[in-house]
Every structure is written in C-alpha cells, then in structure tokens.
Amino acid sequence: MHRRLRATQGPFTPKPRLPILDELIATVLSQHTSDVNTARAFASLKERFPDWSSAARAPVRSIEAAIRSGGLAAQKAPRIKSILATVKEREGRADLARLDGLTDDEVEEYLCSLPGVGPKTAACVLAFSMGRPAFPIDVHVHRIALRLGLIPDRTTAEAAHRLLTPNVPPQIRYELHMQLIHHGRTICTARRPRCSECPLLDLCASGPVLLARGDAR
C-alpha cells in the first residue's frame, strides 16, 4: 500500500512542526472541517491571543469569536478553553514542552486525560509535533481500512487505533497516514468512490463489490 500510494502521489513532505500545545489545539480545530478552515481559525486564534495563558483566561465567547471561521465554533471553543485551563492547572503554565521527556505511552495517557482528547488527537500530536511513530486514525483512514478488510466490519475508530498501529512499520506511519487521507479525499471517497482508478483495487475487499453494485465509479 505504501509503495503504491507513493508511486501515485509522489514524495512525502512532512508538515511544519508546531509546539506540542499548538498542535493539540490545531488538531481540535481540524475536526469536521477542511485544512483551509483549520488554518484560518488557528491563525485567527493566535492573532487574538498573544499566548495560550491569555486564551485560558479568556471567556469562551471570545475564543468562539476567534475561531468562528473554522466551523463548529460553539462546540470547539469550550473544549479548547477546558484543555488550556487543565494544562495550566497541571503544569503551572499553558505549555506542554515537558511531554518531550515522556515515553510515547506516557504522552498518549497524558493527552487522553485532557477534556475531549481521544486516541486520534493524541496520535496526531505525537506524530506531527513530536516526531514519534504514531498512526492517527481519522475518518478517511478508518473508512479505507474497513473497505480494504484490514480491520473487521463495524470496528470503531478507537479499536482500529489499537489494531492497526502495531501492524504498520514505525518508519512509515506518518507518511502512510497522510497518504491515506489524500487517497480518501480523492479516490476512496465516502460516496461513489473512484474504484476503477484505485491503485489498491486488487488488494481491496470492497472495491469489486461496490463496482458490481454500481455504487462506485
């Protein structure tokens, strides 16, 4: 899968690294919206507040106003406020640099203990900010894994995280995650996937069935 997706998508370029807390907040903002909206909302939030401590002290409505361009601001603002307040209470300041000294499991445990943070968000922080060999399971990765038959039917995203990660070589986890996101947005879409153009079709348990039923192109 990795080799075929690289052949069709080209060389991989990692995202610029953000500080741990920045990546955590950016990941919360990215939920159920586009990369463009995420970047716009994150830039607006950073412009509105000079540091995360000031954001932690701000009313939820101020955070909501700052991130409105990213979508679902009313749901995300209270979560961001709670995360920042919890980090500040635990660490004495709104900063998570201390996590660099922890193991992967310890970082995941810490992040998942924060309000509204689950395995997918924790894995994004580990991979994108900390350079650790995590494998985030977002909606695209989850859908493709189910269609390919890599995980049993009706496996939840959280269960998929536990099942898939050990079976993906650590050195390709970040790249494969990004490849699958691109593949899910362009080829293996939620509706009417482009199975006839898929480089993984002969590996896929669902593609031939979808094509035969007329549910794929």
What structural keywords apply?
globular, 12 helices, 217 residues, mainly alpha
Plain-language structure description:
With 217 residues, the protein is an all-alpha fold. It is 58% helix and 0% strand. It is built from 12 helices and no strands. α1 crosses α11, α5 packs across α6 and α9 packs across α11. The protein starts with a helix and ends with a helix. The model has no long low-confidence stretch (mean pLDDT 96).
Question: In a few lines, what is going on in this structure?
Answer:
The protein is 58% helix and 0% strand. With 217 residues, it is mostly helical.
Structural class: mainly alpha
pLDDT averaged residue by residue: 96
The major beta sheet can be summarized as: none
Unreliable residue runs: none
Strand content: under 5%
Number of helices: 12
Helix content: 55-70%
Shape by Cα distribution: globular
Please give the number of β-strands: 0
SSE order in H/E notation?
HHHHHHHHHHHH
Distance between the termini: 21 Å
Q: Work out the oligomeric state of the chains in this entry.
A: single chain
Radius of gyration: 19 Å
Secondary-structure map with pairings?
Elements: H1 2-9, H2 20-30, H3 35-48, H4 52-57, H5 60-67, H6 73-91, H7 104-112, H8 119-129, H9 139-148, H10 157-164, H11 173-186, H12 207-213
Helix pairs in contact: 1-11, 2-3, 2-8, 5-6, 7-8, 9-11
